[in-house]
């Protein structure tokens, strides 16, 4: 098992969305989002949690479709499909002027399929449980060096419990979730949690998310720091604000930034995402 530098994002749970959480979609209703995720990094949190410089830079780009569909009022299907993922190791110029060639790989990313079950969907407070399957459809050893990745090469299953609350008539909502991610192929399992709050101001929605990942350290711990974009035994505490603009009632655009308060074996530079969504 290679332990590799990773980026922080919610590839496991899908793209950032303005719905979801503890709320299920009604039968026959759906949510679709096309998003572009980008991170260009020259520093990361090492295994001790300290920020160090990396050279050459690492870049990762992910173009994806995320969808939710109400099978019934209490069962929602979710799919995250990164149909174009690109990982780049930038060209390096040494002090003596020598150029070291870069490297890149482009392919599908890892697809996630989930089913959310509404445990309680009445009243201002809702509760749901979800199971998500992470399919190893990305490239785990791409590029000329064989160290670049658009997927981690393992099949994982995550159980998540979400509770959401609407403060209506105030235009405010809140959501909290906890999850356990079972990873295979020598990867350590993970405990995940998030807190989210949103405020609607006419056509704008302001969202703030606090997201945490803790490794259970029960997998392969061998040190092999290849400069890829997926890894094992990663940990982080991230703040991810998002701004949503509803062009019409059922569709709009969004922009989000991901930053990390702390981390281990995770890129330390901000990540960015823009998207277009339809909610019917």
Topology:
Layout: E1 30-45, E2 51-70, E3 75-89, E4 92-93, E5 99-100, E6 103-107, E7 111-120, E8 125-135, E9 156-166, E10 172-182, E11 190-201, E12 204-215, E13 235-239, E14 242-248, E15 251-264, E16 266-267, E17 271-279
Antiparallel strand pairs: 1-2, 1-16, 1-17, 2-3, 3-6, 3-7, 4-5, 7-8, 8-9, 9-10, 10-11, 11-12, 12-13, 12-14, 13-15, 14-15, 15-17
Concise structural overview:
Helices cover 0% and strands 59% of the residues.
Explain what the structure shows.
- The protein is built from no helices and 17 strands.
- It starts with 29 loop residues before the first strand and ends with a strand.
- It has one domain: monomeric porin ompg (Porin).
- It has a 15-stranded antiparallel beta sheet that branches. It has a two-stranded antiparallel sheet with strand order 4-5.
- It is mostly beta strands.
- Helices cover 0% and strands 59% of the residues.
Number of domain units = 1
Helix segment count? 0
What's the overall geometry? globular
> Helical amount among residues, as a percent range?
under 10%
Count of strand segments: 17
Percent of residues in β-strands: over 45%
Rg, alpha carbons: 19 Å
CATH level-two architecture:
Beta Barrel
> CATH homologous superfamily name?
monomeric porin ompg
Query: Main beta sheet: strand number and arrangement?
Result: 15 strands, antiparallel
């Amino acid at each position: 098992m290679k332990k590799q530098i990773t980026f922080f994002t919610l590839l496991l749970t899908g793209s950032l969305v303005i719905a979801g959480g503890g709320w299920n979609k009604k039968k026959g209703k759906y949510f679709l989002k096309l998003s572009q995720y980008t991170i260009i990094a020259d520093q990361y949190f090492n295994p001790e949690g300290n920020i160090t410089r990396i050279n050459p830079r690492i870049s990762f780009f992910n173009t994806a479709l995320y969808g939710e569909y109400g099978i019934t009022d209490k069962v929602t299907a979710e799919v995250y499909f990164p149909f174009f993922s690109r990982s780049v190791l930038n060209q390096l110029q040494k002090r003596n002027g020598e150029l070291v060639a870069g490297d890149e790989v482009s392919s599908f990313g890892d697809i996630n399929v989930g089913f959310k079950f509404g445990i309680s969907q009445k009243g201002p407070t809702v509760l749901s449980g979800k199971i998500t399957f992470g399919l190893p459809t990305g490239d785990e050893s791409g590029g000329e060096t064989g160290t670049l990745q658009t997927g981690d090469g393992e099949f994982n299953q995550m159980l998540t419990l979400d509770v959401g609350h609407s403060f209506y008539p105030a235009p405010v909502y809140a959501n909290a979730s906890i999850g356990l991610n079972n990873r295979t192929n020598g990867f350590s399992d993970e405990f995940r949690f998030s807190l989210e709050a949103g405020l609607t101001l006419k056509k704008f929605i302001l969202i703030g998310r606090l997201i945490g990942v803790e490794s259970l350290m029960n997998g392969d711990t061998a040190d092999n720091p290849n400069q890829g974009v997926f890894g094992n035994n990663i940990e982080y505490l991230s703040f991810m604000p998002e701004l949503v603009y509803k062009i019409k009632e059922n569709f709009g655009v969004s922009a989000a930034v991901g930053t990390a308060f702390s981390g281990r074996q995770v890129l330390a530079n901000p990540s960015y995402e823009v998207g277009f969504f339809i909610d019917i």
